[in-house]
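User: Predict the structure for this protein chain, please.
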Amino acid sequence: MTRVYVSAVMPITLEQAWRVLRDFNGLPDYHPFFARSEIEGGKPADQVGCVRHFHDHDGNFIREELLTLSDREHRCCYRILEAPALPVHGYVAEMCLKPITTSNQCFGEWWAEFEVAEADREDVVQRVSDTFRLAFEGAAGHYAR
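Assistant: Here is the predicted structure, written as structure tokens:
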């Protein structure tokens, strides 16, 4: 099992970060990797069990299912259902936000566990790490615009 972990201090409040990152369908709004996204079946983007189907700028797609979403804990968990361009199996990821009370900033953690062939491991770990890092940067940048 491979585990990727990324953390960040964002120069925005917990409420601001959560407003952006809790939107399971909002990746294209703040993440440079992704071009478009939709929730299948017209379900709400915060409904546990909904499936997002999103595309990167090269046309690759990923389908992910929302497993948990907690506004109280500022946490969500999801799994990949289908990702032809990302050679992983059993991928489950979780993101959690915490307030930094002394500076009114936000601390974010994002991690994933999955199986990946050793030949693909380094590339996949880098891609997943970059995805998480850029999501935190994008959430913070959303308020800088």
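The beta strands are 2-10, 34-39, 51-56, 61-70, 75-82, 88-100, 105-116.
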